[in-house]
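User: Sequence in, structure out. Go.
Assistant: Echoing your sequence, followed by the structure tokens.
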Amino acid sequence: ATSYISEAQAAVNHHRELSMTFDELAREAKEIWHRALKRVEVVEVGDSYSSDEKKGLLEVFYTSLYRSLQFPRLLHEVTEDGSDVHYSPYDHDGRVTPGYSSTDSGFWDSYRALYPMLSLLYPEQMSRFIQGWVTAWKSSGWLPQWPSPGERNMMDGTLADAVLADAIVKGLPGFNVSEAYAAARQDAYIDGTYQHGRSSLKEYDSLGYVDPESSTDSLSKTLDYMLADNALAHAAEVLGKIDDAARFGARAAKYALLFDQATGFLRSPKSQLQGKPVFGPGFDEFEWSDEYTEGGPWQYRFSVPWDPQGLSELYRSAGQDMCQELERMMTSANSYGYYHDYGTIHEQREMEKNCWGQYSHNNQPVHHVLYMFAAISRNISSNCARRGQHWLRKAMLELYKPGVSMFSGDEDNGAMSSWFVLSALGLYQLEPGRPSFTLGSPLFREVRVRQAGHSLHILADGNSKAQPFVASASFTSSTGRVEELLKAEVAYKDLTSGGVLRFTMAQQRPSSEELQQKSSVSLGRSSSIAVSISQIWLIVPVVLITLLGWKWVMSTRDQGVKLLQDCSDVESSN
């Protein structure tokens, strides 16, 4: 047996945990996991799948659920008298502290889907984790960014702020709310240290963004700080802290300073002139430059999940349509430049292998993107929402495979797997701090989620492999109240109170209007050359393509007119 505390505690752990035979211990563990996984029951997969395909989908779903439940972890041991204690990895004096702490969570990855999934499906465990993070804050003096078990000083932002703020707004019981808010608020007000908090906080507060001249990953840091501040604004409002809510909300709203009207991308301003951002020359939409963390301009282009409508307005002011630009991300060249001073990194090579334009599902920064289609239209059956539903179903069926190579990239701390679990249920929380889930394209025809005293029944009438589109959705509460979910979102409180979430699926195709919409396709590795489909047809339809060395095919099936790169060369080289 082992113990972080002492040999004597190791002996206590040995006696308590190994006082049974191996078979008895294995049987007990199996029963515990069976209860945890059985909370979400896939009753029926749907039509037009073979028996092997149905088996594969269930394997991916329950493996993903199992992996999601591995993280985070509680750090504690039980003494001989039954008390919870833990050795704090933040206490350099080696003192043993009452209670439990939390550990093993990379918040940069896991805030996006893992914690929303836990709050929805396992709220009682989520509450314990939140209190564990409060304990870690009290022991360390700061909320951790990536503890395993102590702070590893990895990744940008203070995304634990968003997780704690979200738990406060959702009203989860079982943790100290005032301490949780104080812990998260500290990151937003006090200058960080080498290992903790926010770097460049003063300039972020004064300028509205992190200065690229003083910090690498400036654009990514700014967006992470804004997302956390937006979540804190919601928590402050719930707690009646009006001044905090106003200040945090104002910070988050300054993302407009990052929008480059000339290119339609989010960038770090070099300076400001009369309150307007000034951007540097030489922009390359495929270059993974120093402004971005594990990505480039495309991967961060739509990273304002707390205000899709406002971002869409910025696109409109620049003469662009955000839905078309989202679509262009899916169909543009699968190109990238060097990442910082590292050359190429595995995230780029995985994106290339997946061969899906600039949508790099193999890494977490884009995991919200496919839900932005519905969020900007606020109409579950609109053409734009339908495009997102098409890509969501494609992601679930093609980027998650049964077997040892299940995931398309970084499965960090349950981030990739929890995205699949939520998406298979037809749900995703875009905005931490706003207790609402955006609707996607549910993978299964019938699912039951069993909670203490109630259950959530998710039905997708007519769901099949060939019908990924949502014609309508509604929620019927346990009291019989029926709400049509026209805006493609459902309240967290409704889902956790029990009832029936019903989707009506359809095999819809894009309208003739959508097929005629212009979309531009970017060509060339590490190049910002962009030409429209109409230009390709009318100017140099054969010569240009030949010179650039790309093979393209025209497709007018259910995804509309677009250009596709032939991935055979990419796949064979990997």
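User: And one key feature?
Assistant: The CA atoms of residues 37 and 330 lie 33 Å apart.
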